Amino acid sequence: MTNSQHLATADAAELKEVRTACPHLDAVTRHVHDFAEMLHNLRGDQLPDWMEHVLADDLPALHSLVRGLRRGFDAVTAGLSTPWSSGQVEGHVTRVKLLKRMAYGRANLDLLRQRVLLGP
Fold first, then answer.
1. Nearest one of 44, 39, 19 to 29, comparing CA atoms
2. Which residues contact 42 (CB under 8 A, 6 or more apart)?
3. CA distance 62 to 52
4. Long-range interactions of 26-31: CB distance < 8 A, separation 24+
5. Contacts of 45 (CB under 8 A, 6+ apart)
6. CA angle, 93 then 65 then 32, to 5°
7. How far is it, in rounded angstroms, from Cα 91 to Cα 64?
8. SS3 (DSSP) at 84
9. 4 and 11 in contact (C-beta within 8 Å)?
10. pLDDT for 18-71, tens place per residue?
11. What does R_g of the chain's alpha carbons equal in angstroms?
12. What is the pLDDT of residue 49?
């Protein structure tokens, strides 16, 4: 998953040898690298072309990924195009759910509210 430009010479040579020996692995590597570039450079407009290229190869696992991306195409495109993230909000939601589960029905809403507001 590391950018091949950051690999040691021996590792880069070994990676090249493995990719040459297995065309499917080479294709997967190219597609994953292209998707990472889209994500890193916020190029959601390239998603339809990327999906077509993936479907052109015989890679059932990536075909499944493309089908999933199509179900939420607008959301995925927005996620690949904007610098905004809901990660911080999702982290707080996860923390609240953990606190709620820790009480396991033994506490009322007032105690949960106190734990959420005063806890770390």
1. 19
2. 80, 81, 82, 83
3. 11
4. 27/57, 27/59, 28/59, 28/61, 28/62, 31/57, 31/59, 31/62
5. 77, 81
6. 95
7. 27
8. coil
9. no
10. 989 999 999 998 999 999 999 999 999 999 999 999 999 999 999 999 999 999
11. 21
12. 97
| AA identity, residue 8 | A
**Which pLDDT band holds residue 100 (cuts at 50, 70, 90)?**
confident
Q: Residue 3: which residues within 8 A CB-CB, separation 6 or more? A: none
User: Which ranges of the chain would DSSP assign to H, the alpha helix?
Assistant: 9-21, 23-40, 47-56, 60-71, 73-81, 87-103, 109-118
Cβ proximity of 1 and 33 under 8 Å? no
68-80: pLDDT as tens digits: 999 999 999 998 9
- The band of 1, judged by pLDDT with boundaries at 50, 70 and 90, is low
Return all residues near 4 (Cβ < 8 A) that are at least 6 apart: 12, 15
Rounded Cα distance, 34 and 50, in Å: 8
Q: So what's the pLDDT on residue 41?
A: 93
